[in-house]
Specification:
Distance between the termini: 36 Å
CATH topology: TIM Barrel
Mean pLDDT: 93
Number of domains: 1
Helix content: 25-40%
Low-confidence stretches: 327-338
Order of helices and strands: EEEHEHEHEHEHEHEHHHEHHEE
Length: 338
């Protein structure tokens, strides 16, 4: 697989989001199946794996996904770029603990879970407005100088927040929501990141499965732990309203001998040299299909026609790429506009 740079890190142009092996898409697969899926992705050419400290049952089994990923990549750890994320909650700073000490405590847990002595890319998972971002950036800079992380990033932020952090400790990557159905990042995030050598790691690049063409208006998601129940674009009325976009994808998929999901990934790879999508799935077949998008290339004319067709389609259901979490552990995500 071709490689791309996100900051100073070289990664496969398509990475792998590993969350689904621990939570988020209903019943999780058996451990052996998940380990095999991650290893098959590596054998296919994927060298970029994404996890987080909270992927799992947050109350009873935090760290599950990190443990799983660490076990899966143990045989080729030095050959991959490993990304994980931390939250900082306000109550962690009670008793005089500093932000630097809090960040260090999270990092130590992740290092142990992942069975490694360094993290390639360490994200602040969401902004807590009660905690000075500048101090988090300073703490990350200290960890980079120490060599326990190679680079740091932010997730679900706007350009003003990104610029504030980048001015203190250069940011290597922004992990934001980006797909054919969520294109807000094109307005300010991509231009800023292109100018400053920052990678944009696109999560949910297939729009929670919608752009695969396998989700329909009558699709029933699992009752327990399936985040797709809350995705605006997967409400019945929005699925039906966004079908013209699927029709376009099917047209190009037929023309290129590819799948709709692969076309959606090839589109963003063609559009931005600094984007690295990290599609996530708990299904081995889907994982390998997504990675196969690296073999689908759009010509300049195909891209222009596809882009024009997409621009002519209104999009229904919108989440946005700026989110923050505030208050005590367990509070829901709260949107916040810059």
């Amino acid at each position: 697989m071709k490689k791309r740079m996100i900051g100073n890190l070289e990664v496969s142009e398509i990475g792998m989001g590993c969350m689904g092996f621990s939570h988020g898409y209903g019943k999780v697969p058996e451990e052996g199946y998940a380990l095999d899926a991650i290893r098959k992705a590596y054998e296919t050419g994927c060298t970029f794996f994404d996890t987080a400290e909270v992927y799992g049952d947050i109350m009873f089994y935090p760290g599950h996904n990190e443990l799983l990923v660490g076990k899966a990549i143990s045989g080729f750890r030095k050959d991959v770029v490993l990304a994980t994320k931390l939250f900082i909650y306000s109550e962690e700073l009670s008793g005089g603990k500093s932000i630097r000490e809090a960040v260090r405590a999270h990092l130590e847990k992740s290092l142990a879970n992942l069975n490694t002595d360094y993290i390639d890319l360490y994200y602040l998972h969401r902004i807590n407005a009660e905690i000075p971002l500048e101090e988090v950036a300073e703490a990350m800079g200290s960890l980079i100088r120490e060599g326990v992380i190679r680079a740091w990033g932010l997730s679900q932020v706007g350009v003003e927040t990104l610029a504030k952090a980048h001015a203190i400790t250069p940011v290597a990557a922004v992990q934001n929501l980006y797909s054919m159905l969520e294109r807000d990042c094109e307005k300010e995030i991509f231009p800023y990141c292109m100018e400053h050598g920052i990678g944009v790691v696109a999560f949910s690049p297939i729009a929670s499965g919608f752009l695969s063409g396998k989700i329909h208006a009558d699709t029933q998601f699992e009752a327990v732990d399936d985040v797709r129940k809350f995705v605006p674009q997967l409400k019945k009325e929005n699925i039906e309203a966004n079908l013209p976009i699927l029709d376009i994808l099917h047209e190009y998929a037929d023309r290129k001998g590819a799948t709709p999901a692969q076309i959606s990934l090839a589109w963003m790879l063609h559009k931005y040299p600094n984007v690295v999508p990290i599609p996530g799935s708990k299904n081995q077949e889907r994982i390998l299909e997504n990675l196969g998008a690296a073999n689908v290339e759009l010509t300049g004319e195909e891209f222009r026609m596809l882009e024009a067709a997409l621009n002519a389609c209104p999009v229904y259901g919108h989440r946005g790429h700026v989110e923050t979490v505030q208050g005590n552990f367990g509070n829901n995500w709260k949107k916040k506009e810059d």
